[in-house]
Amino acid sequence: MPPKAKAAGRGRAPAKRKLAEEFPPGEVLKDTMKKEWKLGAPIGQGGFGVIYLAEENSANPVGADARYVIKVEPIDNGPLFCELAFYMRAAKPDLIQSWMKSKKLKNLGVPRYWGSGRHERGGQRYRFMVIDRLGTDLQKKFEECGRRFPRKLVLQLGLRLLDTLEYIHEHEYVHADVKASNLMLSHSDPNQVYLVDYGLAYRYAPEGLPKEYKEDPKKCHDGTIEFTSIDCHKGASASRRSDLEILSYCMVQWLCGRLPWEDKLQDPLYVRDAKIRSQENISEFMAKCFSSQDKPDEIQRFMEEVKSLGYTAKPPYDKLRSILQAGLKTIGPKEDGKLEFTSASGAAAPPTKVSAPTSAELESLALLSLPQLIRSFPSCVCMQQPVSDCSQCWCSSGQTSSPLYVMLELSATT
């Protein structure tokens, strides 16, 4: 999936946004409830913000085992503001816990919201949000598995996402951008998966009343082009059926490796028309994606059920779950809750390999700002994983001896 095509799919983003400047480890931020949070190492960059490890403020430095992350963006930027609206309404820990109890769920794939606020540094104002720390995203796992997941894993993911989407929908929102890179494993439990990035989340039912279908040419093709729904291609706002249509495309791609329109992602009209044809004849679409022996009947039934939904209709979540559960039963033993990331052939996924920078690269990197640094130095200081998902962002020898820390210190003095 070419990154450029994905970027093109988010066509309404402002032309210019400010980049977040670096904050030093130990910076303390105070949220709207007067609670203080201490920043640790930066572990990733999303859009125009920076993501830091964080803990509740104390005399201790924030270590590699931090339980939280803080997303920071300049206050004039829009994406974090949109995410905050969702998190504050729908992701408070007590809301999530209450839902899990009522539905008898052991886990729900929505990161918990712990706080937010504004912070000023060097004359620049920032907005920040505190959420659970998570681990690796599923796109990395998908690539490591040779761009095909086994059928059991896909059905497990589909069931967990149904639980997550039902929760989001019942709290008046749709996600509108479900995809592997927006799905992250728990930092502490590799069998839990979370849906992240609510920058496109849309409140489809303010006060419980779903908005009516309306096309807006300025909104055509919003979302990630290969997965976005037909409604969004046409300029309508995302709905509950949009999220489920997007999920069906994800499941097909995870099973067969690619969608039929992936070679034409630079042509959104072609992609839209290909999706319309796929919905007009789902059986033919499935035949293009799978051999007759490999065709997962439960995915076809899932797609047909979603196709029958009206724009404002409430999806039959239990029926959709039963369709995927029936597919799981044909595979073998009872679902054990474990997510096994192997290739479709059964081989275990290899570990992510990252090359260490040369000494010349280290010298040049020392002159960069933090956003540039993260882009240019994608690997963790332990050289084992990308910095965005490594659980050991400072090496065991200590924070001040890590090359990334040295470069941060140097960049702060140049």
TrEMBL record:
Q: Where is the composition biased (Basic residues)?
A: 7-17
Q: Which residues form the Protein kinase domain?
A: 37-328
> SUPFAM superfamilies, alphabetically?
Protein kinase-like (PK-like)
Is ATP-binding included in the keywords of this UniProt record? yes
One Pfam family this sequence matches: Pkinase
The residues that cross the membrane are: none
What EC number(s) are associated with this protein in UniProt?
2.7.11.1
Family matches, as InterPro entries: CK1_Ser-Thr_kinase (IPR050235), Kinase-like_dom_sf (IPR011009), Prot_kinase_dom (IPR000719), Protein_kinase_ATP_BS (IPR017441), Ser/Thr_kinase_AS (IPR008271)
Q: Which residues form the signal peptide?
A: none
Q: Mind listing the UniProt keywords for this protein, alphabetically?
A: ATP-binding, Kinase, Nucleotide-binding, Serine/threonine-protein kinase, Transferase
Binding residues for ATP: 71
Please state what class of enzyme this protein is: transferase
Which Gene3D superfamilies would you find in this protein's record? Transferase(Phosphotransferase) domain 1 (1.10.510.10)
UniProt-recorded Gene Ontology molecular function terms: ATP binding; protein serine/threonine kinase activity
- Annotated region (Disordered), positions in chain: 1-20
Q: Which family does it belong to?
A: Belongs to the protein kinase superfamily.
According to UniProt, the name of this protein is non-specific serine/threonine protein kinase
Native species of this protein? Astatotilapia calliptera
Q: What is the lineage of its organism?
A: Eukaryota, Metazoa, Chordata, Craniata, Vertebrata
- What is the name of the gene encoding this protein? VRK1
